[in-house]
Structure formats: structure tokens, C-alpha cells
What does this fold into?
Amino acid sequence: MTVAAIEAVDVSRTYELEGVSVSALRGVSLTVDQGEYVAVIGPSGSGKSTLMHLLGGLDRPSGGRLVIGGRDVAGLTAPELATLRNETIGFVFQAFHLLARTSAVDNVALPLVYRGVGARQRRERAAAMLGRVGLGHRLHHRPNQLSGGEQQRVAIARALVTEPAVLLADEPTGNLDTATGEAVLELLERLNAESGVALVMVTHDQEVAARARRRISVRDGLIQSDTRHDRPPSGGPGGPATLEHAPSAEPRSASGSGPGRPPGGPGGAAGATGRLPRAGGAAR
Amino acid sequence: MRVAEAWRVALDALRANRLRSLLTMLGVIIGVASVVILVAIGTGTKQQVEQQVEGLGSNLLLVVPGRLDVGTAPVVSPLDLTDADAVSRVVGDPGRVAVTVASGATARAGNRSDFTTVQGVLETTPSVFTRSLGRGRYLTGADVDTGRRVAVLGASVARSLFPDRDPLGQQVALAGVRFRVIGVFAPLGQSLGVDRDDEVHVPVTAAQRLWGTRRIDGIAVKAPDRERIDQLGERIVAELSRRHPDTEFSAVTQQQILGVLGDILGVLTGVLAAIAGISLLVGGVGVSNIMLVSVRERTREIGLRKAVGARPRDIGVQFLLEAVLLTSIGGLTGMALGVGTALLVDAFSPIPAAITWWSLALAFGVSAAVGIVFGVVPAQRAGRLDPVVALRAE
Ligand SMILES: Nc1ncnc2c1ncn2[C@@H]1O[C@H](COP(=O)(O)OP(=O)(O)OP(=O)(O)O)[C@@H](O)[C@H]1O
Ligand SMILES: [Mg+2]
It folds into this structure.
């Protein structure tokens, strides 16, 4: 039995822009289990990136309850949240965000710096991780000496070098051509299957989303649907899913949340802390 | 580990923007260098003055009418040679008492002339003031008693009047009256910008006759011991006040002269150092400015570092170190420049300069502190950046 890696209950995020509030998320509840593979889809501006930032502890919710790695972020100071990110989350961004003038191996080793790992061990672990993403021969290349796909693989290695529970990837193939993107995707799926890191990935590609065993559709700051497949339609490396979950009539999506509902505090969603039954194949 | 990373990143940032770093440092370099140079010149001048005042002779007591104060008008002296005799009785040894009556006069020899200071003195002068003769002999008691027209020339006077002749035994006309040269002083050099070799000593009696006066300007006493010098001064002043009830007298020791001169030089040095310090401050503002630019340029890097687990403090320390490194390297360079310049000035110009360790330590400490003071705001700003906003920055 596993504990949820991330648990969001009625989470909202409102931006204040020159006196006008913009609701990017309006009450979202979801649980990311360990080792899961989740695709997040939705139109532009629907709040996908906002959701990813919240799930990764990069941002704090305006309302609702968010528990990452068993810790409620509301009770954490900024340094504690930083440490939590370092220990439990790996980010992969569309724009790679590698440090220029810094070798691949040092880019990958960066999170270990903030974990307090010694220089030598840092390099060893970073080099090993680069080997796992197929870049063992590019350790000392700088980002501008690497192709886009290679850069994103360096970024993936950086996200995984700390052995996080969850890998959050926001359109990781958005800046890559189709073939390269496919390779990066396969790498992410393989790492998810091999190391048991939960993978939450934002994508615009329906086909890609279909490969994930769980698909969350976001629209207007709300979860529109949250569905699971028994088995990936296309031959993903995950293998066939075992039917260990009882089917449920109720989709686990934000069934209780809607525009008319006032933003819930932690108390209002107490029931959601228990694990909802998985919706085996049940979709709206 | 985190601190080591901060060092590495800070150094890397400076190296990546070499020219910009150098230009930013320039303000600090100039500020620190000028502080070091000006303090060195101030210190050197002070040391030189001290040496020269002490070089006048030890345990010296100068008795003058009026008060030793900066800015008070000179008082017309009521003293004459009988007062000097009275002082001799107080001291108990005429050999320790010297007098002077001085005036500018033209000295002429053949077709050469030189405007110089003519001093009417007693034969005791060389033993009261430390003054040694280069050639010939000094004035004698008989010269003074009879008002003989004999003269002892300062080294530079002798050089200008007798460039290629032996001055001994020659005639010089002082204010039109002929004197016979009996001696030449050994060269002394400059003191407080005054050429101390530009003077002529004649018997005080002859000088008084030359200018038609019975006055003397002042009396100098070489006290027998240092401990009772102030007491002796008081007794002399009391005696002179008794003889001239209308005039105020003061007896000043070398220590007092040094104190007054030291105060003046100290204020001067302080003012100059403060002006230099302002340029250091301006340099600090430049550092602050460039650090804000650096934070803005590297906003995405800050966002990324935060995303992978850097705490606000880690980021803050990184930028603070960058600022401190900038000013410390600038400070060290400025110190080297300042020391080098001061040594050159000391060696190749008449201006004395002395390097003091405290001024170097102060200059370095201040430049490092400038880095902290002016780096802390940009560093805090970097540390507080919202990672999501930072990652989106252009
Ligand atoms: N810092 C911000 N200030 C104000 N509004 C914001 C901010 N960030 C996001 N938003 C708004 O929140 C909404 C959701 O933004 P978000 O970036 O999460 O969308 P997205 O689903 O990731 O879109 P895309 O697919 O284009 O990346 C948008 O309407 C956006 O304008
Ligand atoms: Mg987005």
C-alpha cells in the first residue's frame, strides 16, 4: 500500500493583477500516487502550468489544502518548502532552463548542491544519471554544444538525480521536433516504469496523452475529467495494468467542485483526504 | 557545500563579465587608492615635521611675547638683551640661552646678490639649537660683545653668493653694510617648505645696530632636564611679566609645537581621507547598481535554482558574495596602486609619504564593508524572487 505522493484538496490559485483577480485555478482536487503516469491536457490558459507549479511546491495555493510528500505546504516556511522541492520533486520545463557556461554534469549535479552532497559524490551521481538518459558521452558539453533533445535529456537527468517521488514535466517536448520529442517522451516513460518515479506531464498532444494510464483534463481552472485506462492504448513501456482497483461509478475528477462552489478551506474537503477508489476505465 | 557553490558561482559571474566587473571595481580602486595615498602623505608629512622639530635640539623652550595660537596676530616684542640676561639668571646658565632678532635683507657679494634672512644671535646658538658648522668658525662672545661685523652663512646663501670661490674671509654686504664671512653652516635642507639653509647669522649687537633697534624677537632656552621644563617655562614667563607688566608671554616646548602642528596635519589628513572616502562610497553605489543588473539578468537562473531546492538564503549569499568579491578585489587592487604610488611619491618628489598598516587594514575593511552594505539590497531582492515569476522572466 502506497501513500499519496501529492494530494490536493479543493486547491485554488488567484492572481491579483492591478486590482483585478484572475482565477487560474478554481478548486481542484486530485491525488498523485507513487509511480503513477499522469497526462494533463487542456486548452491554453486553462491553468495547467499553474497546477504543475502548485503540485511541485513552486507556488502556494490561494485556497484549499496541498500536501506534498506528506507535508502540508501551508505550514512550511520558504526554506522548508525549498528543501521539500529538493527532496521530493523533479521539474522538467519546456524551456529546459539549463545554466549556460555550465557543463552537462554540473547542470545535473546542481540539485545535489542544495542537498549538501559533496562535490565528488555529486559528480559521480550526476554522471551516472547522465548515463541513464543516454548522455554518458556528453558529460562536459555545455548547453550550447548540445542539441535540443540532448538539452532536455540533461534537464531530465537533473530532475531525477535527487531520486524524487514525482517528476513534473510541463510540455517537455514543446520545444522539440516530433522525432526528438518522441525520444524524450519514451525516455520519460521508461524512467517512470523503471525507477517508479511518478510522472505528471502536461501535453497538448492527444495521442501522447492517450499513452498515459491516467488522463486529467483541465478547463477554465477546473478539472473537467480524470480518467484511467486499464492499459495504454498504444504500446507504452508501462506494460499492461493490473486490475487491482474496483471500478467506480463516480469519476474521481473534481466532481464536487464547480464555479458555484465557494472556495473550500482545508476543513471543507476533509473527506477527500481518504483515498478515492480508482476509476477503472470509467469516464464521463 | 552550499557556500562553496556560492563562491564558485560568484567568481564565475565576475569572470563572465570581465570588463563590466573591472569598470565597476574602478570606483572602489580609485577610492581605496586615494585613501591610502592621502593617508600616507599625511602620515609622512607628520613624521617629517616631528623629526624636524625634534631636530631643533632637545628640551627646547621658546619664549615669545604673545600667545602660541594659530591665527593670533604677532605682537611687537618689548624684549631686549637685558631680558635675555634676566632669563639667564633664572636658568642659572647663560650658555643655555639664545636670542634672535631677524629680518629679511639683501646679501651682496661682488655682482651677486641674494635675498635672505639675517638673524642677529648670541654665540650660544649652536649649542641651544642643534646646528653644525661646515667650515670656518662660529660667532664668539667677543664678536657679540663688540658688535663685530662678522657673518656665518647658511649653505644655500654661500652657494649663491660664492659659487666658485671660498667664502671664508670674503666680504658680504648685508642691507648695504659690509660683513666679513667667518663660517659656513653645514646644509640642513627643507623644513615645512622653508629652506633652512637660506639664512645668515650675525652678532645680535651688530644686527641691532644695522636696523637701529634695541629689541630682540624672542628667547630660546635649552632646559637642563625634561621633567622640570614646564616649571622652568613658568618661572621665565613670571620673570618677564614682572619686567614687562603690559605684555603677555608664553613659553612653548617642542611637545606643544608638535601638538599644534600634529592637530593641523591631522585635521588636514582627515579631510582629505574623507574626500577620498566619498569616492569609495560612489564606487559602492556603482556596485549596487551593477548587482541589480546582475540579478535582473540572471532572474531565470535564480528561478531554476529555487526550483531545484535553493533556499532564499542560498541565493542571497551567492549575490552578496559576488558584491563583496567585487569590492574586495577592487580594494586589494586599490591598495596595491595606492602603496605603489605613495612609494613613488616618497622616492621621487619632495612630498614625504609613509605607509601605515592601519590605513591598509582600514581601506580593505571598508571596501569589503562597502560590498556588504551595497550588495545586501540586490542580494535580498534576488533571494525573495518568486520562483514561478523568475522562471518566466525573459
Ligand atoms: N503571474 C500571473 N499573473 C496573472 N495571471 C496569470 C499569471 N500566471 C498565469 N496567469 C493566468 O492564469 C491562467 C492559467 O495560466 P497557465 O499558465 O496555468 O495556463 P496553461 O494551461 O499552462 O496554458 P498554456 O497551455 O498556454 O501553457 C491564464 O489565464 C493566465 O493568464
Ligand atoms: Mg503552460
Q: What stands out?
A: Residues A 48-49, 170 surround magnesium ion (ligand 2) (CB under 6 Å).
